[in-house]
């Protein structure tokens, strides 16, 4: 598969991904995948660039994987959002013009949203102090951005360290706090497709949803409208903090958020161990009929696999189809795939996101 940016070849590379997913899932009698396309350009909402200096002047640079010594200098990045491309030149020009902003600057990170907000992080090989703040504030006002300065052990936030995204799913707009440095889906348009597919796949339910790896509540919020109650679990403190904000911002009152790792959830639900973090939560009040998982690239561990097999339905979103197929070797013993989807989060790369709905046999 060619990895070069080539919008004219987009349909071909997407067809190759579809064929690869079908091959991986063929032994599990999966139905044909529903395919959700990306915009061919300007689809990536976040990007980071190292700065490469030639004759004392900084340039945005990217590197081939595994080779940090051969820089490819760039002025624009067509896969990045239009907002990122609009900001790249004026931001770098301002840093060139002002030594307080530009001295020992080595990396620039952009986070943008479909709703039009932008947050930029400037990373330095020198300590930052209050002298940085005033020129940084002027630049933030000039470009209408949130601006953060980072150096070793220090983080200077001028106003706030997050942007607010707005995603339209199943006839409703959901708002999400997205914190600098936290995980967010890079392709906002395809993320909306994923959320819409998940909501449609689970349908309307009178029982409850157990969600593992909930992150900042990306799936939690729209899925909460399809169940009586939701118990969502996440371990990372920054993600839990954002999830709490997002639940409140969207008035999702039927969600119980618990800070537990997936293996701890297994221990709690099977009665192996009690957790102080579950104080005041009666697990017997829940009637889980569906479990939703969106695991890291390594997939589900054996204990979590055994746990999810105990539920009638499993909604599984995967960022690694190889580990999804490995997990399905176990899940296929008790469940069958009834729906399947391919989400092209990462055009012009080998990576793809997929989803399956499994129902017990």
Overview of the molecule:
- Dual-specificity methyltransferase that catalyzes the formation of 5-methyluridine at position 54 (m5U54) in all tRNAs, and that of position 341 (m5U341) in tmRNA (transfer-mRNA).
- Keywords: Methyltransferase, S-adenosyl-L-methionine, Transferase, tRNA processing.
- This is tRNA/tmRNA (uracil-C(5))-methyltransferase.
- It catalyses: uridine(341) in tmRNA + S-adenosyl-L-methionine = 5-methyluridine(341) in tmRNA + S-adenosyl-L-homocysteine + H(+); uridine(54) in tRNA + S-adenosyl-L-methionine = 5-methyluridine(54) in tRNA + S-adenosyl-L-homocysteine + H(+).
- S-adenosyl-L-methionine binds at residues 185, 213, 218, 234, 294.
- The structure is a single chain.
- The protein has 361 residues and is an alpha/beta fold.
- The chain folds into 2 domains: 7-41 and 187-360, 3-Layer(aba) Sandwich (Rossmann fold), CATH 3.40.50; 46-163, OB fold (Dihydrolipoamide Acetyltransferase, E2P) (Beta Barrel), CATH 2.40.50.1070.
- 29% of the residues lie in helices and 30% in strands.
- The protein is built from 10 helices and 17 strands.
- It has helices at residues 10-25, 82-97, 99-102, 133-143, 188-202, 220-223, 237-249, 262-269, 302-308, 321-331; strands at 34-36, 46-54, 57-63, 71-74, 105-112, 118-124, 146-151, 154-157, 162-169, 172-179, 208-212, 230-234, 255-259, 288-293, 313-318, 335-343, 353-360.
- It has an 8-stranded mixed beta sheet with strand order 1-16-17-15-14-11-12-13, with helices on both faces. Strands 4-3-2-5-6-7-8 form a 7-stranded mixed beta sheet, with helices on one face. A two-stranded antiparallel sheet has the order 9-10.
- Strand 6, helix 4 (133-143) and strand 7 (146-151) form a beta-alpha-beta unit.
- It is globular, with a radius of gyration of 22 Å.
């Amino acid at each position: 598969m060619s990895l070069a940016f080539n919008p004219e070849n987009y349909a071909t590379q997407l067809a190759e991904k579809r064929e690869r997913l079908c091959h991986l899932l063929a032994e599990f009698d999966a139905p044909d995948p529903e395919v959700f396309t990306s915009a061919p350009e300007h689809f990536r909402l976040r990007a980071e660039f190292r700065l490469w200096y030639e004759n004392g002047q900084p340039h945005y640079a990217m590197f081939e994987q595994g080779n940090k010594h051969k820089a490819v200098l760039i002025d624009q990045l067509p896969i990045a959002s239009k907002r990122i491309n609009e900001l790249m030149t004026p931001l770098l020009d301002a840093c060139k013009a002002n030594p307080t902003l530009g001295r020992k600057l080595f990396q620039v990170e952009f986070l943008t949203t479909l709703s039009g907000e932008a947050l930029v992080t400037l990373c330095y090989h020198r300590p930052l102090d209050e002298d940085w703040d005033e020129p940084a504030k002027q630049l933030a006002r000039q470009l209408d951005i949130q601006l953060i300065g980072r150096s070793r052990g220090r983080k200077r936030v001028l106003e706030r360290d997050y942007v607010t995204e707005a995603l339209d799913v199943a006839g409703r707009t959901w708002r999400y706090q997205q914190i600098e440095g936290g995980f967010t889906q890079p392709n906002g348009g395809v993320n909306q497709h994923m959320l819409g597919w998940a909501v449609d796949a689970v349908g309307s339910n009178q029982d409850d949803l157990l969600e593992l790896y909930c992150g900042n509540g990306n799936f939690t919020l729209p899925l909460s409208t399809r169940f009586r109650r939701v118990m969502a679990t996440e371990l990372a403190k920054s993600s839990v903090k954002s999830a709490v904000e997002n639940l409140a911002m969207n008035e999702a009152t039927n969600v119980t958020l618990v800070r537990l790792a997936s293996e701890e959830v297994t221990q709690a639900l099977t009665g192996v161990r009690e957790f102080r973090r579950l104080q005041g939560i009666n697990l017997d009040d829940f009637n889980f009929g569906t479990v939703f998982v969106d695991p890291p690239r390594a997939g589900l561990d054996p204990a979590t696999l055994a746990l999810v097999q105990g539920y009638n339905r499993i909604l599984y979103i995967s960022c690694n189809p190889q580990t999804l197929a490995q997990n399905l070797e176990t899940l296929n013993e008790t469940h069958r795939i009834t729906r399947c989807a391919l989400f092209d989060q990462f055009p012009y790369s080998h990576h793809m996101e997929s989803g399956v709905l499994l129902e017990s046999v």
